[in-house]
Specification:
Oligomer: single chain
Strand order of the largest sheet: 1-2
Largest sheet: 2 strands, antiparallel
Number of helices: 24
Radius of gyration: 22 Å
Shape: globular
Distance between the termini: 23 Å
Order of helices and strands: HHHHEEHHHHHHHHHHHHHHHHHHHH
Number of strands: 2
Length: 501
């Protein structure tokens, strides 16, 4: 066997390679140029080329590196989504970094390294490979959370994220060890084949439970969500935009793959997902009701939306046993929800980032009073994002919640569907409250005396992508849904398992 991977394997991980190469290149360029525009162009080019690197995998699906990486339509979808998030975050961060006088190259490099880790996490077919992707993403994220080194709250954010993230990683790694002890493999497709005895099955379930705890931290599922408000508030707002969308999409992708391929997980963890979904929805929405800081409100909102996605996970566990319906629609509901959610969250946090001003001083709800009159286009965009998070028609969030709700009803999870509807009503209060403040309340004198916040061209590009995407998915969702509902979104594990036998 050759010591070097073949060209086909390398081409299947081309996006991650490109993101890593451009991250290293940016760090080398930092001492050679002081042009922020040039460094931003290089970073955006690297993010775009990484997305384009999926071209080979689109036409040549399969596995790479002896089954460690799955290059299927599922991983390609999430690679595109993660790459889109990176592009929007880099563009949106340009003016923020200049205003806060922070170094560009290191920031962009860390974003690209984190993006590469998320790509590995979303395409991993083996648990140690997933662990490598998780660590690539996490280490970069810990540094990004404390990127404003002179701000005490940013340092606190980084330290909390690092300490709690380390505990979560320990749970994840110990879970992998137990799974390996039970099955003799860390390959997801082989676990059901090797797990036969009852004692082995119990050990496997215990290992999967620890893995679920580790990944539950990354997606901010209750009761593992306590880090989210403080980290989101203290981190630079462009970093908060990345945290709210990227790691959540990659981690949910890995969870979907685990619960698609390992039937011990699918059959055993229905009640775990039911309870997690209910707790997470209420923890997020009830916490958001009390917030007067926009970043913290959106942080609690992110927790609530993780709960909505977990409703679809509970449906997956039910529908997987139903040969007539199957879990395909529930998988598609999760993927579609993550796409619509990412566009909205990055767009909303981009507005908060720009509107916060130097030192992020304007983050309270009162600072947004009268925004509809002072800056009507910005207020309209933010209102659209909030209404999408609420789930109103003609926005992407409407179909996102609709298909999650439908998956729950199809799985006969009526009470969970009722809780989802009730939490959507609770969420309406704090979303509409901000809209009312923007359009129906006069600005405070300090804000009224200042000139309107300038939104540079690159920031407007990010907002345009988010607005167009939100409306497009809300009016014409079929293009995305037709792709997601095609058979075999996740690798056809049954045929591969048959071959392994």
């Amino acid at each position: 066997m050759s010591a070097f991977p073949n060209s086909a394997d390398l081409l299947h991980v081309l996006p991650e390679l490109i993101w890593c190469v451009f991250g290293a290149l940016l760090m080398l360029l930092q001492p050679l140029t002081q042009s922020r525009r040039f460094l931003t162009i290089v970073a955006v080019m690297g993010a775009i080329l990484g997305v384009c690197g999926n071209f080979y995998s689109v036409h040549n699906t399969g596995t790479a590196f002896s089954g460690l990486i799955a290059a299927d339509r599922f991983s390609i979808f999430f690679s595109h989504l993660i790459g889109l998030i990176a592009i929007m975050v880099i563009l949106g961060a340009n003016s923020y970094l200049e205003r806060e006088r922070l170094a560009d190259a290191e920031f962009y490099a860390l974003v690209l390294f984190a993006t590469a880790g998320m790509g590995v996490l979303a395409s991993a077919q083996e648990l140690l490979t997933a662990f490598i992707g998780l660590e690539m993403s996490s280490i970069s994220s810990y540094i990004l959370a404390g990127y404003r080194r002179d701000v005490l709250k940013s340092g606190e954010s980084s330290m909390k994220y690092f300490l709690l993230g380390s505990f979560a990683t320990a749970f994840f790694l110990y879970g992998i060890a137990l799974v390996y002890g039970a099955t003799g493999t860390t390959n997801l497709l082989r676990m059901d084949i090797t797990a036969g005895a009852e004692s082995t099955s119990i050990l496997l379930k215990l290992g999967l439970a620890l893995i679920l705890i580790g990944l539950g931290f990354k997606v901010a599922a209750a009761p593992f969500q306590i880090w989210t408000p403080d980290v989101y508030e203290g981190a630079p707002t462009p970093v908060t935009a990345l945290f709210s969308a990227g790691p959540k999409a990659a981690t949910f992708a890995l969870l979907l793959r685990i619960f698609a391929d390992v039937h011990a997980a699918t059959q055993f963890w229905f009640y775990a997902f039911w309870i997690l979904a209910a707790l997470t929805m209420f923890a997020g929405n009830l916490g958001a009701l009390l917030q007067t800081n926009v970043k913290r409100m959106l942080a609690y909102s992110s927790i609530a939306h993780a709960g909505y996605i977990l409703v679809a996970f509970a449906a997956v566990t039910k529908l997987s046993a139903d040969t007539n319906i199957g879990a395909g629609p529930a998988y598609a509901a999760v993927a579609f929800y993550l796409l619509s959610y990412a566009l909205v969250k990055v767009g909303a946090f981009t507005i908060v980032s720009q509107f916060g001003g130097a030192g992020e001083k304007h983050l309270s709800l009162d600072d947004y009073a009268g925004l509809g009159e002072r800056q009507p286009f910005v207020a309209a965009a933010l209102s659209l994002f909030l209404l999408s998070l609420l789930g109103l028609p003609i926005t992407a969030g409407f179909f996102g919640k609709f298909y999650v709700f439908k998956a729950a009803v199809d799985a006969h999870l009526i009470w969970l569907a009722v809780l989802l509807a009730a939490n959507s009503i609770i969420g309406a209060y704090y979303y509409i409250r901000l809209i009312v403040i923007m359009y129906m309340r006069d600005p405070i004198p300090e804000v009224a005396a200042t000139t309107p916040i300038r939104f540079p061209v690159v920031v407007n590009v990010v907002l345009a992508i988010a607005v167009i995407g939100t409306l497009w998915l809300g009016i014409l969702p079929n293009y995305a849904l037709n792709y997601l509902l095609k058979p075999g979104l996740i690798n056809d594990s049954q045929s591969q398992i048959t071959q392994m036998k």
